[in-house]
Design brief:
81% helix; mainly alpha; 4 helices
Length: 118
């Protein structure tokens, strides 16, 4: 979960910040400063959310952040589409991420345990 979830949140942070620049340029949000403030804070929150993924409430934090990205669609309508895509990616990360992490740990344990495979 940590690897896949981290990837989703970091990529989402980059896209959100770039969307803030576009929203400021197109006038979707009143003033460049307001757009950059909202987008920048949301991007920072997404990056900070990566740090919570190792804790029990990390998935919940990720879902709340997905809600904030979708809510930004009220001011920047294209964020409904972008946010929807990232909600699907986050769902995939939550659903399959733990399984992927367990498989990686199993493979690492096997290669460390035998040592003669190479």
């Amino acid at each position: 979960m940590r690897v896949l979830g981290s990837t989703v949140l970091v990529l989402e942070a980059i896209v959100v910040f770039l969307a803030a620049l576009v929203a400021a340029g197109t006038g979707a949000v009143d003033g460049m400063g307001r757009s950059l403030l909202i987008g920048g804070l949301l991007a920072l929150a997404l990056i900070a959310g990566v740090g919570t993924l190792g804790r029990p409430f990390g998935v919940t934090v990720g879902w709340v952040l997905q809600g904030f990205v979708l809510a930004w669609g009220l001011w920047v309508p294209s964020m409904w589409i972008v946010g929807g895509i990232f909600v699907v990616l986050w769902f995939f990360a939550v659903r399959n991420g733990s399984r992927i992490d367990a498989l990686r740990a199993e493979r690492a344990a096997e290669s460390d345990g035998t040592g003669a495979d190479n």
